[in-house]
């Protein structure tokens, strides 16, 4: 067979490591997932964002085979969720860890490493998760932040191709959080795919290549970090001005106006009209600075838009 006649296979980089498609899940009358679909690729961090109860943990649970979907498709490394062969190639750090309190950290690490065909060395795990001095301690006697680091070590100790991190840095101090971010970046640079849920939008901004925003069990945005930000038209305008912010707040196109000392900050839908009026009304205005809204603003606007649509549908 000549090379030309071979069917063209998708390149490994474009085949998703994991995928949900049209997934529905209801708990009695409550719809937790309402047709959720997204995928995670090699060498990228996908951040799944959403308010409490939006369906983030349920999406992960479906991918891990912990919860059965009522409808739709779920696949991990080309296998059904929960498949043992897939389990040996993924790492998982969930909110509820279920780790025996009496076990020594070193024992936990040895045991978890033994499940995997190509575990990382203990020394690497200790360095990557920041476990120095913790190996002989009992898990239950560690602080919350130390326990999170142990959970992270257990998630990465098998050199997984795909890593599920459900709010990994909750309870970590700034230094430990930065260390975990650095390790995640290192893993991703080596080709690992990461599904990250977080309530810290600066964490998603710092780590994620792509973002999926869930709102009440539906995907309301899915795209590259910059694309999701760009979907939001809002701008933040800052300047030194003596204008009355209560009055500025009533101008057309202005969403919010606040004062911090001599500086005012205006959040506007379309910056141009508002900037023109600011300059016209205050000839002494200086230090004008206009920025695209950050992920936090984008997130709020995206979920607020769904609120509006839902209200409209209900009306
Ligand atoms: N076992 C369960 N039984 C009944 N309802 C459930 C169960 N698990 C989740 N739910 C409900 O499903 C919805 C989605 O929950 P899920 O835990 O996926 O949200 P989340 O986005 O992870 O929220 P959080 O940010 O609070 O962790 C919520 O309304 C939740 O109350």
Concise structural overview:
This protein is an alpha/beta fold. It has helices at residues 56-64, 84-87, 105-114, 122-129, 144-156, 174-189, 201-207, 225-230, 245-248, 271-281, 295-314, and strands at 18-27, 30-40, 45-49, 71-76, 90-93, 162-166, 193-197, 210-215, 218-224, 235-240, 254-260, 263-268, 286-292. Strands 5-6-7-3-8-9 form a 6-stranded mixed beta sheet, sandwiched between helices. A 4-stranded antiparallel beta sheet has the order 11-12-10-13.
Strand content of the residues, in percent?
Answer: 25-35%
CATH topology of the largest domain, which one?
Rossmann fold
Q: What's the Cα radius of gyration?
A: 23 Å
Helix and strand sequence: EEEHEHEHHHEHEHEEHEHEEHEH
CATH class of the largest domain: Alpha Beta
- How many domains make up the 3D coordinates? 2
- Biggest sheet descriptor: 6 strands, mixed
Give me the oligomer status: single chain
- Separation, N- and C-terminal Cα atoms: 63 Å
CATH superfamily (homologous) name of the largest domain: P-loop containing nucleotide triphosphate hydrolases
Task: State the helix count.
Answer: 11
Small-molecule binders here are: adenosine-5'-triphosphate
Mean pLDDT: 87
What share of the residues lie within helices? 25-40%
The rough form would be described as: globular
Report the strand count: 13
What does this structure look like?
The longest helix has 20 residues. The radius of gyration is 23 Å and the shape is globular. The termini are far apart. The strands form three sheets. It has a six-stranded mixed sheet, with helices on both faces. A four-stranded antiparallel sheet has the order 11-12-10-13. A three-stranded antiparallel sheet has the order 2-1-4. It has two domains: 212 residues, Rossmann fold; 60 residues, Alpha-Beta Plaits (2-Layer Sandwich), CATH 3.30.70. It contains eleven helices and 13 strands. The protein is an alpha/beta fold and 315 residues long. The N terminus and C terminus are likely disordered. 34% of the residues lie in helices and 27% in strands. Adenosine-5'-triphosphate binds next to strand 2 and helix 1. One of its GO terms (molecular function) is ATP binding. It comes from Lysobacter brunescens. Keywords: ATP-binding, Nucleotide-binding, Transport. InterPro entries: AAA+_ATPase, ABC_transporter-like_ATP-bd, ABC_transporter-like_CS, ABC_transporter_ATP-binding, P-loop_NTPase. This is ABC transporter ATP-binding protein.
């Amino acid at each position: 067979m000549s090379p030309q006649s071979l069917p063209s296979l998708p390149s490994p980089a474009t085949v998703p490591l994991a995928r949900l498609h049209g997934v529905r899940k209801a708990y009695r009358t409550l719809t937790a997932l309402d047709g959720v679909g997204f995928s995670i690729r090699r060498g990228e961090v996908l951040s799944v964002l959403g308010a409490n109860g939006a369906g983030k943990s349920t999406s992960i649970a479906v991918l891990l085979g912990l919860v059965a979907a009522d409808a739709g498709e779920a696949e991990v490394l080309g296998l059904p969720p929960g498949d043992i062969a897939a389990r040996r190639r993924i790492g998982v750090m969930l909110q509820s860890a279920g780790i025996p309190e009496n076990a020594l950290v070193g024992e936990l690490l040895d045991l978890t490493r033994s499940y995997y065909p190509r575990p990382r060395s203990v020394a690497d795990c200790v360095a990557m998760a920041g476990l120095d001095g913790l190996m002989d301690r009992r898990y239950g006697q560690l602080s919350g932040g130390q326990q999170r680091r142990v959970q992270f070590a257990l998630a990465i100790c098998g050199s997984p191709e795909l890593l599920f991190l459900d709010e990994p840095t909750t309870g970590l101090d700034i230094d430990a959080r930065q260390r975990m971010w650095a390790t995640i970046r290192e893993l991703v640079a080596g080709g690992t795919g990461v599904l990250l849920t977080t309530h810290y939008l600066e964490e998603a901004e710092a780590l994620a290549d792509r973002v999926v925003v869930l709102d009440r069990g539906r995907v309301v945005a899915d795209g590259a970090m910059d694309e999701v930000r760009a979907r939001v038209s809002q701008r933040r305008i800052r300047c030194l001005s003596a204008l009355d912010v209560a009055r500025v707040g009533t101008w057309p196109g202005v969403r919010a106006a606040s004062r911090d000392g001599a500086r005012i900050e205006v959040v506007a839908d379309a910056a141009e009209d508002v900037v023109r009026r600011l300059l016209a009304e205050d000839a002494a205005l200086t230090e004008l600075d206009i920025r695209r809204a950050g992920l936090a603003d984008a997130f709020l606007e995206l979920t607020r838009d769904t609120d509006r649509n839902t209200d409209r549908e209900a009306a």
